[in-house]
Design goal:
Shape: elongated
Distance between the termini: 26 Å
CATH topology of the largest domain: Rossmann fold
Structural class: alpha/beta
Number of helices: 8
Order of helices and strands: EHEHEHEHEHEEEEHEHHEE
CATH class of the largest domain: Alpha Beta
């Protein structure tokens, strides 16, 4: 899961990014509402931690704008405001949860897990499915149609998840690099090719007919098979 932390207090923003990274999440930061809004609109993030008291656009304005555009990325509001009217205002604008500062990191992590489960929207089954493939976000296990499974490494999982959440869509190498390695990473585009090669071998191992196809000069897409 890739998380965007929109927080103007540098120390808190960096601490949250470190803590989230230590828990296995990919995390980026934004220091004001304008930057945060632009990054959210990129479509690269699975969840947003959004402070309300931000420069340029405040958090509620960011939330109003993204929901107005139909963007349904889950948002957890972070704020020092604790009045009922503030909470109701944020939830009415489409926030998925609300956490008042100061908060304990275990509580935030629990809220993230809860919102992520709710966002999956597929009942009790948390697996990501595309074609004849099933991906378990808890164990990083990829399973084929006959039940044969293989465990993926962290980057393999992130790439496979991105492809499976966007089947039959051409994803450019740039999109994949930003999604899996982040904006500030020094990863080269050929890293994408290397990890696609790894995944193709594992898809073959689980005896699935779905496949990752190259689109010459652009990137890759997941072709589903029933």
């Amino acid at each position: 899961m890739k998380i965007l932390v929109v927080e103007d207090e540098k120390g808190l923003r960096e601490a949250l990014i470190r803590s989230l990274s230590g828990e296995g999440y990919l995390a980026d930061g934004a220091s004001d509402g304008e930057e945060g809004y632009a990054l959210i609109c990129s479509g690269l993030y699975d969840l947003v931690l959004l402070d309300i008291m931000l420069p340029v656009y405040d958090g509620l304005e960011v939330l109003r704008r993204i929901r107005g555009q139909g963007l349904q990325v889950p948002v957890i509001l972070l704020t020092a405001r604790s009045s009922v009217s503030d909470k109701v205002g944020g939830m009415d604008l489409g926030a998925d949860d609300y956490l008042t500062k100061p908060f304990a990191m275990p509580e935030l992590l629990a809220r993230i897990r809860m919102v992520a489960r709710r966002g999956a929207g597929s009942g009790p089954d948390p697996h990501i499915k595309a074609g004849d493939l099933s991906l378990d976000p808890q164990s990083f296990t990829l399973t084929g149609p006959g039940g044969r499974s293989v465990r993926l490494g962290a980057k393999e999982y992130q790439l496979m998840e991105y492809l499976m959440r966007n089947p039959k869509q051409i994803l450019s190498r740039e999109q994949i690099t930003q999604r899996v390695w982040g904006y500030d990473a020094e990863a080269e585009y050929n890293n994408v090719d290397v990890y696609v090669s790894f995944l193709r071998k594992k898809i073959k191992f689980v005896q699935a007919a779905s496949k990752i196809s190259a689109v010459r000069g652009v990137g890759y897409e997941l072709e589903e098979a029933e």
